[in-house]
Design brief:
The protein has 556 residues and is an alpha/beta fold. It is 38% helix and 12% strand. α1 packs parallel to α3 and α5 crosses α6.
Length: 556
């Protein structure tokens, strides 16, 4: 008996190591199915089987989490016809982690160009985003790509692939250069070729693949996720493919101030992608293209594509994204008109999350997060971004569309908004809300009938409900811990979340708060005091968080 207890203790220790190495709980090790569940293993009480299990888990743990190097090393695509803008060979950087079955593939961001003039200007100012000629042999990942477990507690020991952005097309182009003097736009093809290479370098044995991207890379995730999932399925049908878009969920709204598209950073997103789609020979998701057959450019905007996506997607977006504000030409909010526009933009963005099942939207003025060391400290209602992501990743059989997951209503912040954006601006959400209430009422009545019919104990009642009911199954089996992966800030003004990244003075680079930033752009406190009917001295001595809330309330 003592021998069995000692062996059981050794088994428990190995199980803890297995969990640390993120081996799946239904791992197939050395051709034998093993359930890494101490409760199930304890039931056997068979010393011989237990020792055999220890051997098998030990073999799987050999080298687990041991990285070849903390740096990512450069690899050039084997297909040299797929190139960067200037014809130089495209490629990727990789850091492998022996024994790990998890893969993170990151798409770099960096805006775009959409005609000869804007691309020539980009070549002059941002040549590193159009050519591989000066790529270093190694790169050091930061944030979610870091090999440091303190900086990246969830993915430090995953296989990490970084694909540099050198196609200037939001990862959608399929256009080779017609002549040596022309630009090539092959972003979508670059992703495809990288996946091909990886499928002969370990990905064919992977269990989880997270396609991640920031800014234009985030848009690239949305555009390519389903295609990647379809591409890998024949060679690795057990691979769970999901996407994570960081700051790539843009609005196709009307800008605050329309300008000519002479500068890619000031051109409205609508005009830019209209021009770019044709210039790049852009490839958008097939199902979205069918939905917007007359306006395929709509498929560059996340909330338009999301309704037709099959692979699960996690959305991270700052509610006051600096890139969106720059494209909308709104500038720093020092007038009531600017404040009104920014608040409207934030509300429109919240409205697009109505049916998104996995979202983290903080009320901050910033852009991108995943490649920053501070990514692990961003939080909403006490839940950090890594915690929300891990909650979502650990749930099997996740799919998109929030209203299909009625359990989220119990634990998550629900956003009520008046209107959607752009050409859907006249469609209110009230009818949808009434329909949702009616559906929930019908579901409660159906569950009561099933409970009466199956009166043989709580477990049997649940089992009866699981049958032919994927949504209820999701609620009971995947969210017993009540972890949350749908979080949207309640407060409605920029920087109201105390976990927001610190702002910096654009002229000096010094750290400052939002009110100081507004003053540097010309916020007149005397005019504000007169408008609010307050003493200017009282206003100047007010706590800046209170003043910001007061300004936000005044502009409503």
């Amino acid at each position: 008996m003592a021998t069995l207890s000692a062996v059981s203790a050794a088994l428990l220790f190995l199980l803890l190591l297995a969990l640390q190495c993120n081996l799946p709980v239904d791992a197939r090790i050395v051709g034998v199915d093993i359930l890494l569940d101490p409760k199930d293993l304890a039931k056997t009480g068979d010393l011989r089987n237990t020792i055999e299990t220890i051997k098998q888990i030990g073999q799987a743990l050999v080298g687990c989490g041991v990285k070849e190097s903390s740096h990512l090393r450069k690899h050039v695509l084997s297909n040299r016809t797929v190139t960067c803008n200037d014809g130089s060979p495209a490629g990727y950087y990789m850091r492998k982690s022996k024994g790990s079955k998890r893969w993170v593939i990151f798409l770099e961001g960096g805006w775009y160009c959409f005609n000869q003039r804007s691309c020539d200007t980009r070549w002059t100012k941002m040549r590193n985003l159009m050519s591989s000629a000066h790529w270093p042999d190694t790169r050091l990942g930061e944030g979610m790509l870091s090999a440091d477990p303190e900086e990246n507690p969830a993915y430090w020991n995953a296989n990490v692939v970084f694909i540099p952005y050198c196609s200037s097309d939001s990862w959608s182009g399929t256009k080779p250069a017609a002549t040596k003097s022309d630009w090539a736009f092959m972003g979508s093809l670059i992703i495809q070729e990288v996946i091909k290479n990886l499928l002969t370098d370990g990905l064919q044995h992977g269990r989880k693949l997270l396609l991640v991207g920031s800014s234009a890379g985030g848009t690239g995730v949305i555009l390519n996720l389903d295609r990647v999932a379809d591409f890998v399925r024949p060679q690795n049908p057990r691979l769970d493919v999901r996407g994570f878009t960081d700051s790539g969920w843009f609005l196709d709204n009307e800008p605050f101030k329309a300008v000519d598209c002479t500068d890619a950073h000031l051109c409205s997103p609508i005009e830019a992608v209209k021009l770019g789609l044709n210039y790049w020979h852009g490839l958008v998701p097939d199902r979205c293209k069918l939905q917007y057959s007359d306006e395929p450019w709509r498929c560059y905007f996340g909330y338009r594509v999301y309704t037709s996506m099959r692979a699960p997607l996690f959305v991270f977006q700052w509610l006051y994204d600096e890139a969106q504000m720059a494209a909308d030409n709104v500038g720093a909010p020092v007038t009531k008109e600017q404040w009104d526009y920014i608040h409207s933009m934030g509300n429109q963005l919240k409205a697009t999350f109505e049916n998104v099942s996995a979202v983290f939207a903080a009320s901050c003025l910033s852009h991108i997060v995943l490649t920053k060391k501070e990514w692990q400290f961003v939080e909403i209602d006490g839940v950090t971004l890594p915690q929300a992501l891990e909650c979502w990743m650990s749930s099997n059989h996740e799919h998109n569309h929030h209203r299909h997951h009625r359990n989220h209503n119990q634990f998550d912040v629900l956003i009520s908004t008046d209107i959607m954006v752009s050409d859907e601006a006249n469609v209110t959400t009230r009818s949808k809300s009434r329909l949702a209430k009616q559906q929930r009422r019908q579901e409660r009545q159906r569950r009561k009938r099933l409970h009466k019919k199956n009166g043989k104990g709580r477990q049997q009642k649940r089992a009866a409900l699981f049958e032919d009911d994927e949504d209820f199954d999701h609620r009971w089996r995947l969210h017993n811990s009540k972890c949350r992966h749908r979080l949207i800030d309640r407060c409605s003004w920029p920087q109201c979340n105390q976990a927001c990244p610190k702002l910096r003075n654009p002229f000096t680079g010094e750290e400052m708060d939002f009110i100081d930033l507004l003053k540097s752009f010309g916020l007149d406190m005397t005019s504000v005091a007169n408008a609010l009917g307050m003493d200017v001295a009282l206003l100047n001595n007010m706590d800046h968080d209170q003043l910001l809330q007061l300004l936000a309330e005044y502009t409503k």
